[in-house]
Amino acid sequence: MEQQLTLLLLDSPEGAKYVEETLEVASSSSSVPSSTDHRHRTFVKFFVYFSLVALAYYFIISSFAVSPISPTLPQQSSSGNVSSAKCDLFTGDWVPDPTGPLYTNVSCHHIQDFQNCLLNGRPDVNYLFWRWKPRDCDLPRFSPSQFLDSVKNKWWAFIGDSIARNHVQSLICILSQVEEVEEIYHDKEFRSKIWRFPSHNFTLSVIWSPFLLKSETSSNSDIQLYLDQLDHKWTVQYSKFDYVVISGGKWFLKTTIFHENNSVTGCHYCQGRNNLTDLGYDYSYRKTLNLLRDFVLKSNHKPLVLFRTTTPDHFENGEWNTGGYCNRTMPFKEGQAKMKTVDDVMRDVELEVFQKFGKGFGLGSNIRLLDTTGMSLLRPDGHPGPYRHPNPFAGVKNKSHVQNDCLHWCLPGPIDSWNDVMVETTLNRERELYDLTG
């Protein structure tokens, strides 16, 4: 240790100069053969040596001293990483993470076949070794044991389309590393499900409601969308929930006929049939989110509601049905990716509707924005691509004929980081605000 400290000090210009001068003095006086001088030089050497050691030890200890937490500094989160209620969790970058995911496709038995990329033969694994890092703060890594302890006797619901299902499967995979989950309900199509973690009495559910509204579909007609009626499949259960993650999505781009006040008022992508006015998908999406917002604000039941923003896809050179593909193996850096027009429009609607809360929006109200759009845009490498099925190119002469999935996410994969920001937005920040307010 003493040698290391001495070397550290010698590396500094002042230390080197001081030692050099000391050695020169000793060298010049060595020509006088005196035992008294010899003892004196020996004493000086030891004195200088131990002085240098003591000085180095002082500076090193001082540099590692931990100062008390100032009220102006961000507090420590329960995971030990720095976080702040004022930090923008959704602006940042993906950084390498050699620790990898919290689960594998072997340790989790709840991965849908379409998202089990490794089992289906995806050859690269680099996409597994990245984590989301906000620009101005630390994001604690998801702790399944802490999460389950925090949600004892609670009910957490996800409402939306297949991306919501993708998200809940990611959460289940992480939590199942601590406690195996029991499926206690599913509908006929296996789209809506309820699970329970028995030792924590924690209930988790996903409700299939791609429009969030009442909708009717038959095999020989367009989708009928009722813009003034929320889907009763989730509204009748709403009073049971303690936490809700709700989201819209790509279903609003489908051909739809709009109903309001018991009359047909327009459509989207209906190509002029029945002389209907094409009002656009932004019209129906805005109506939906306004209706959703009013429902949450007016309800006597006050769960914590997260609205998850739109998920951009990464199809290149076409769409899902026109030969589009996604074969990138690295994340984008901030500023390298550009959103498609449809995603831009949907995001603008989301921000327009939810920013109307003003000071009541976010912390302090029961509805918050889970703004995963930006972080998701930077991960073109995280989709199944052609690996929706095992060995997708076997026996195929033209690889461009293999359909790609560039919207959903591989499990494990980037969507796991949604849970990091979800928990920080809800449970961790609730604890932080409680500590700050007493």
UniProtKB/TrEMBL annotation:
One of its GO terms (cellular component) is membrane. Residues 86-138 form the Trichome birefringence-like N-terminal domain. The keyword Membrane applies. InterPro entries: TBL (IPR029962), TBL_C (IPR026057), TBL_N (IPR025846). It is a single-pass membrane protein. The chain crosses the membrane at residues 46-66. Keywords: Membrane, Signal-anchor, Transmembrane, Transmembrane helix. Residues 139-424 form the Trichome birefringence-like C-terminal domain. One of its GO terms (molecular function) is O-acetyltransferase activity. It comes from the Eukaryota. It is found in: Membrane. Belongs to the PC-esterase family. TBL subfamily. PANTHER family: PROTEIN TRICHOME BIREFRINGENCE-LIKE 26, PROTEIN TRICHOME BIREFRINGENCE-LIKE 9-RELATED. This is Trichome birefringence-like N-terminal domain-containing protein.
